[in-house]
Sequence to fold (247 residues):
Amino acid sequence: MSTLHTQLQALAAHVRDPAHHAGPVGIEERRLRVYRELVFNNLQGLLAGTFPVLRKTLREREWHTLLRDFLIHHRSETPLFTRLGLEFVAFLEAHANPARPWLAELAHYEWAELGLQLCDAAAPPHDPQGDLLAGVPVLSPLAWPLAYQWPVHTLGPDNQPVDVPPEPALLLLHRQADGRVQFSQLSPLLYRLLTLLEANTRHTGQQHLQALAAEAGQPDFNAFLADVRPMLARLHASGVLLGTRIG
Fold:
């Protein structure tokens, strides 16, 4: 068993980093090459499918080097293939790329679509017809407000900025009833409201809006409320807001 363990450890190290780790003694090069190519090609196929924009943006050699670095340096916390993309995001966040400082955020944005498609979070008990001002609004667990330093929704081979924009990219990802994920841009006010509701368990809609009006320096709350009401109605009609909390 000790010998088998040693061989497996040597094989794993070789498959990850063949340039610095020889294969197990007694296994011919032809067979080792099969293992190396199988692992690398499977990894490449899975990640290229999850991160198509990132893949197209990088040169072939740069993409392969990034995958090899991921194999060598990252130790995944889960064996699930469906979580591999998130492990890749974590790797990019921990290893900044000075030439492409937006790389990790682009990867997270691309992963979020798959993450939302796989999400099975259940909404708390709620009244779909509840008063969104008097009650505690419930944000759908399938609606994710996201903020990025870089314009991740426009990045690609022909748009690779070098300077951080003055304003963040505020986005909403929402899984529709048919399973499709819809992307939309948010105003700072709407993003702030959705993030408040995301963490909310007890404040009413009116309490949140009063706080937002104060933050925005709006002295006339009634006028502010008149402007915001249609936005709340649209969020409810689209399923981003499910209604009001029960209990």
Q: What stands out?
A: The beta strands are 126-127, 137-139, 143-148, 169-175, 181-185, 241-245. The first strand starts at residue 126 and ends at 127. The first helix runs from residue 2 to 16. The CA atoms of residues 214 and 221 lie 9 Å apart.
